[in-house]
């Protein structure tokens, strides 16, 4: 009798487990916040998505953000200094601490294998662009207009930042404006795999579109 009862218990338990709703067991991962979770949370508490935006601004002044251990690699202002030196808007008279000297002497730009600024600018500005894409995607995507004014303001800033990133890339990786010249791959969604280069005209169309969208949102 005990054996029969034991078998019956196993059968009942099996039926109970197999009848559980799959959606009940299929919970969202709790080890990280997905874009979907972030977007839903932003509707309740906009400060969550504002925190992500502050993270982008923090990246802009982070040491070694360009992927090197060089002291010349300290975010956006380091590239402002480099561009001033390359365009002769600023002259480096002395070389006491040996910073940016090889750039001002036009040595770095003659060798593509040197990371500063050839690789670091690419890595830095695309990292900024991807972070902006994450915020935009989490709040409905490129064509969405958030209902919340607070979230709308954050998305507007993210689009302005994306335009900022592509504008600076266009300055570093093109000699002059040529609408038909292929200069940069365009990424408007996070996590996209490598793409072919788009034309300068397409890059500028995106920059202008993002800035107009940012103006409306802000």
TrEMBL record:
<feature type="domain" description="SusD-like N-terminal">
    <location>
        <begin position="115"/>
        <end position="218"/>
    </location>
</feature>
<dbReference type="InterPro" id="IPR033985">
    <property type="entry name" value="SusD-like_N"/>
</dbReference>
<dbReference type="InterPro" id="IPR011990">
    <property type="entry name" value="TPR-like_helical_dom_sf"/>
</dbReference>
<protein>
    <submittedName>
        <fullName>RagB/SusD family nutrient uptake outer membrane protein</fullName>
    </submittedName>
</protein>
<dbReference type="Pfam" id="PF14322">
    <property type="entry name" value="SusD-like_3"/>
</dbReference>
């Amino acid at each position: 009798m005990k054996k029969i009862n034991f078998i019956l218990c196993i059968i009942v338990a099996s039926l109970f487990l197999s009848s559980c709703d799959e959606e009940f067991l299929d919970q969202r991962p709790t080890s990280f916040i997905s874009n979907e979770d972030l977007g839903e949370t932003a509707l309740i508490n906009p400060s969550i998505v504002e925190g992500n935006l502050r993270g982008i601004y923090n990246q802009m002044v982070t040491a070694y953000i360009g992927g090197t251990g060089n002291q010349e690699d300290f975010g956006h202002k380091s590239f402002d200094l480099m561009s001033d030196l390359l365009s002769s808007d600023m002259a480096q008279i002395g070389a006491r601490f040996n910073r940016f000297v090889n750039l001002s002497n036009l040595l770095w730009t003659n060798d593509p294998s040197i990371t500063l600024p050839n690789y670091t600018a690419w890595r830095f500005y695309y990292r900024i662009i991807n972070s902006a894409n994450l915020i935009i995607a989490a709040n409905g995507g490129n064509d969405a207009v958030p209902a919340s004014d607070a979230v709308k303001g954050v998305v507007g800033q993210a689009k302005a930042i994306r335009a900022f990133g592509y504008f600076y890339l266009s300055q570093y990786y093109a000699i002059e404006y040529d609408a038909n010249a292929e200069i940069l791959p365009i990424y408007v969604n996070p996590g996209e795999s490598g793409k072919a280069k788009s034309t300068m005209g397409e890059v500028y169309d995106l920059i202008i579109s993002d800035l107009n969208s940012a103006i409306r949102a802000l």
